[in-house]
Amino acid sequence: MLCVTCDLTVEMVMYLLEPEFRNEPLLLIPPRLCLTVHSFCLDHLQTRSWTSYYTLSEITNYVCYVMLPMVLVLGMLSQLVNFVTLLRQIRLCLETYMLALSIESLLLIVCGVILCLPHYIGYFRLLVLVQYYTLVCREAVWYAFVWTLVGVGIQQCIQSFKHAPFYICIISSFAISSALPLVWQYSLTSEEIPTSHMTNISNNSVTLIENIQPVANNTLSVAYFWYSSSIAIFLPIFLMAVLCLALTVLMFKRGDISQTFNSSCRSSATLILHRNRVDERAKIRLVLQLLVLMVLMMSPLGVLNFLCHSLIGILQDNTTVTVFSNIATVSFHMYLVLSQQLYFCYHKQYRSTLISMWDCCC
Question: Is the pTM here over 0.70, yes or no?
């Protein structure tokens, strides 16, 4: 009786894990040699046996498979609320950066939807064509997002750093030019795949996105790999660590000043200055938490991609890497949901504007 129950449980788990590509990374981005969700690229999945180890891996992948659409929808709604709220309020330097981050977050979510969609609806040639250009767009938006966040930290540390529109334009141009080489690194190719219908055998043409310049085989690809890794991972994380340290010191300094005002005379000018100091301290805490959460929640996906580029092929052969990649993908997009909550908790003007919008709607 116990054996029958165990068999039924295993069959139920196998039934629930029905998606065809449950062992695949959800976010199909480089360094994969083939980025298309199609059996031509994913033949290695058919040879895996069902063991307890792979059962645990597939369950984890399936949880990520179910969670990712919900996270993307919540992220889209959160960033739309951000965008509308920031448009309606008075924008100083920090608010301009926040508006740029909101636009970049929306673009990241849209790119994530396009790149993950084949896992849920299957192969479509038109979608593959869109994905090819989405790769470049996502890389450019990611570079712009990272360096805009660095600019937020610098602005909060150095109050005189207030040329936000000019800085954002420079960063956008830099990000687009840095992502353009992906157009030549990946190419749209057509493969003829034989299919049999009863006694008739025919060939179907399938469009795939393939890496035509692997890192291990091309000097320019190696140079671009280290350049992109430096501007997307190493240098931003180093700067964010320095900025987090500086912001922590500045936040405690603002706290000491607030305590001094509390113990001094209660004139109207002193109270106004005290409120301004409290608001500044809240903004510093907001930026600090944005930087820390970005390093904790978004950088693991970039680090995994860097490792897979360095050790080419492990993404196809190592199930553990795939599991961590899917967890990192969900965590990456979860950050875009949490950022709106941080804005609401720590930015007084944002909170007032959002509440007033809600009152107007009601």
Answer: yes
- In the chain, the amino acid numbered 325 is S
- State the average pLDDT over residues 234-252: 91
Query: What's 217's DSSP letter?
Result: G
> Which amino acid does the sequence have at 219?
T
Q: Which helix (H) or strand (E) holds 143?
A: helix 125-157
200: β partners: 197
User: So what's the pLDDT on residue 173?
Assistant: 93
Residue 340: is it exposed, middle or buried by C-beta count within 10 angstroms (0-12/13-18/19+)?
Answer: buried
* Residue 142, phi then psi, degrees to nearest 5: -65, -45
Where do we find the tokens 């107007």?
360
Using pLDDT thresholds of 50, 70 and 90, give the confidence band for residue 318. low
Q: Shortest CA distance to 171 belongs to which of 90, 80, 104?
A: 104
Spatial contact of 207 and 190, defined as CB atoms under 8 Å apart: yes
| List of residues 6+ apart from 79 with CB closer than 8 A | 102, 105, 106, 109, 336, 340
Looking at the chain, the whole-number percentage of residues with pLDDT higher than 70 is 65
CB 138 within 8 A of CB 108: yes
Residue 41, both tokens: 């690229």
The residue to which tokens 């809240």 are assigned: 282
Cα 164 to chain centroid distance, Å, stands at 23
